[in-house]
Amino acid sequence: MEIREQLKQQREQRHWSQQDLAERLQISRQSVSKWERGTALPSFANVVAISDLFGLSIDELIRGDTELMDQLTVADEEDVGPVGRVIYGGLFWGVIGFLVTWALGLDYQDTATLLQLPIVLVFIALLLTIYANQQHHRAPLSRAVIWLSIGLIALMVLPLISANVAAIVRVVPGAARAGWHAGAGN
């Protein structure tokens, strides 16, 4: 039996509407409708949720649906997943960073100083991306958690920013600084 038939049968046995099932799975009613019509297939995460909700094993749920099994198999073989992408992406950029610093003749201290602020900014962007992506999943992170994380990162960055500003001020020639102070007094 295909998953669309299994889904409809299990839903009707419980006297649930498509909306009732959608609410229990925390998805849209349109998704349930598409699955039951066979115009779309549920993701693996949704297959697991359906399995848990109906008390069926995943094997019972998808055994007869060759199209879904093929989709899940192809997706598993082709996609390394988000963790794999992070690992491979990190390795790639790490190698690129090493090659650039080696080519420029920068030592560790120079490199660390140059990269601290961009790394923190990338981390903040990552948090914002996670928040945006979590809004579409079943257990979204709250805005408070994201803003708290950003606030903590900002507190970590303040010493870095002040150290960089102090270093820049030391580099600026005395005459230029004197000109800035004179201009600020006007």
Distance between the termini: 82 Å
Spans of at least 5 consecutive residues whose pLDDT stays below 50 are: none
Mean pLDDT across every amino acid position:
73
Mass-distribution shape: elongated
- Count every helix, treating DSSP H or I runs of 4 or more residues as helices: 10
**Proportion in β-strands:** under 5%
Helical amount among residues, as a percent range? over 70%
Beta-strand segment tally: 0
Cα-atom radius of gyration: 27 Å
The major β-sheet equals: none
Q: What multimeric state do the chains show?
A: single chain
Helix/strand-derived class?
A: mainly alpha
The SSE string, one letter per element, is HHHHHHHHHH
